[in-house]
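User: I'm putting together a teaching handout on how multi-component assemblies are represented. Below are the sequence lines for each component of a complex, exactly as they appear in our records. Could you produce the 3D structure of the whole assembly as structure tokens, so the students can see both representations side by side? Please keep the chain order the same as the input.
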Amino acid sequence: METSFTQPRRQSPIGVLVMFFDTIRHWARGLWPILVVWIFKFNEINKTYFLLVVAGLFLVIAIFAYLRYLNFTFFLDYENQEFVINEGVLNKSRTTVQLDKIQQVNISQSLIQRIIGVYSLDVDTAGSAKKEGKIKAISHPLALELKACLLNNERKAAAEAAAPENHQEVPAEVPPFIQISFISLLKIGITSNYIRSLGIILAFFATVWENVNNLAEHSTFDKSRIDTYIDKSLAIESIAFVIALLLSAVLVINLFRVIVRYFDYKIARQKGSLLLSFGLLNTKSTIIKPEKVQVTTVSRNYFQKKMNILELKIKQASGDEREERKSAIEIPGCNEYEKDEILKLLFGKVPEKGVMLKPNFRKLVFSIFLTIVVPLTGFFIIGTNVGPQMMQFAYLTPLYAVFFGLVHFFGFRNYRLFINDGFIIKQSGAWDIAHEIIEPMKIQAITTSQLFWHKSADIGYLTLHTAGGNLAFQLGDFTAIKAYVNLWLYRIETSDSNWM
Amino acid sequence: MASSRQSSYTKMENFTNETIDIGSLPKFEEVRFTALHPDYWKVVIIQWAVFFLIAATLLGFALFCVDDFAGFRLAASIAFLLIVVLSLFFSRIGFRKKAFAFRHHDVLFRHGVIATNTVVIPYNRVQHVALHEGLVSRYFGLAKIEIFTAGGNSSDIEIPGIQKEQAENIKQLLMGKIQKQL
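Assistant: Of course. Below is the structure of the complete assembly, with chains in the same order as your input.
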């Protein structure tokens, strides 16, 4: 049956549920500090009152979700060649997408949508990085039909413009060629981003602490009780226990973050581009066009090497020249083979490491001086002159020195620049070893830099500027750097190849 | 990338691929640079003078009208003088270091105080060019050329202290080069 999209349509009625959960998610994000405080105060508040408030809140959200459902309509306006979406309860908005600007229509499903049995449909246009149009709940046959209608029009417009490469059939659902398994995500979750998760935990406790304190000032909440409780607990529990607790919290948070964010990661090939879709609660989808890729980073630490997983990060240049938005796309948990396949798709071949440039030993000396010698000297000067009570922590200083010494030593040992005809690869990092890959043709500008006291040692800095960020190499052999700069300039200036 | 590969196929007949002798490539480090116009130093001096006059007025007001600061009069004046001398000294080095060169295929700009930075932008990577005239610079007939690439702020260059006519010419030249690329 041919469905007509010329009349404004609503989403699937069951979509109210999607709206409901979506609204809850949005509100929860804004209100979580209050929720945490409630949990703290759970014993002190009136239970019936609490239940009433919660029920009331849910009712309001339900009504809101229903109104959102009622007000969400979409249709195709053939006269103006536009796809129109109307939405909003209090603030009405109307999104119109020119049909010939539509680049991609993605149909995807998040966990909630999977349970309910509906799909979401995204419309991607050229020029803008953000989602132009998104329908959150639509049945699968209808989604396919709408996709065909939207893309058919594009094909017609393209045919009128006589662009031969667009004459291909509109592909139906492309089967993914890489699918990142749940196991891989688990592996990534327990092996990466320790520092980021630690930051999240600290931020979390800081927010909770602030909220509790605020609350304490305004209510009969006994603040001193908490303080003594914390003092006592700190005295009783050993520091090792606290550290273990923190570590497990980091692991759990990492695991949750990775799974929520990257659940069901699929990569499909379409017309030479990569089509990515991922996410547990809301599915995100993006396209990577090989010609727009500027900087590709492959990173991996010791554990991940043993488990044969790695992380890929891809920075693209935005199609819009006015807003130079750099968007990094992460592909977590691929194995060696999958990485090679993706790189082949992006570059035509697997990048190889060429001639190796090493940094001068002064880089190591300088970083040790800056992060170990200077702070520790400062510590001992202040400790001996001003605050003797600071000296009771003096036993921590060798620990600090050894830790940072190791970080700098391995960081220095891994710091390399590999150059061959097709690729420039920078290797760096102490624990997570990253390889940043760029093609010489993507270089926008080159800066070389030398401090006057480095002239006799013939060492200096190199910065390669691309539309996806800079790639810098410090204290390398300056004669070699200058020779490569001349070669790259020659290559860039004699070829008419485009960087985007 | 795909399109570049295609275009190299179409040009197959006049396509050669000899080994490049890296040693014989033109060397950017041996290019003769053009210094900024001498009048630009006057512009820098005037800008600093205006800044320090305002700062000195505020400082003097604070030192002589607020009794609490009376004890610091000598120390603050010496510090102020030291800052003036150091600023002028480093500006002078910065001014002497700043230089530019326009080659056939790229533009070079050298700057820095303790470091010597050389930025090279190939013409086929230039996004747009702007001409900027400051209030003081205009009095001396000088202008600043700003060259932008897609590589973000750190790769854009600003060449100050170029005579207005020359700057116009350079802008025309660059625009011509960009047009040819498109």
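A couple of points students might notice: Chain B has five helices and seven strands. The helical segments of chain B are 2-10, 39-65, 73-97, 135-139, 164-181.
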